[in-house]
Structures are given as structure tokens and as C-alpha cells.
What we know:
Blueprint: H1 2-63
Amino acid sequence: MVKVATYFAMTLGAFIFWQSMDKVHVWIALHQDEKKERLEKEAEIRRVREELLRQNKEREDSLA
């Protein structure tokens, strides 16, 4: 009886462990995706800002 209870407990523990690891992997993947999207947005903002600054400088140079 103790062997059966031990086997059941170990099986249940392994199942819970694998389920929690699966959730951890999903959480990590989501956060990596969010970080990648944020970095892409920041890079796009930087590109647009540099382009606008360049256009503004060209406009000032042509007026001067």
C-alpha cells in the first residue's frame, strides 16, 4: 500500500512539475515577445525622429 501511495504521489508531483514548467515557458516566451515588440517600436520612433530632425535641418539650411 505504501508503494502504491508513493508511486501515486510521485506521479502527481511530476505532473504538477511539468504543468508548472509549461506555464513558465509560456510566460517567458510572452515576455520575450513583448520585449522584442517594445524594442522594435523604440527603433522605429528613433528612425522617424532622426528623419524629422534631418528634414528640419535641411529646411533651416535652405531658408538661411
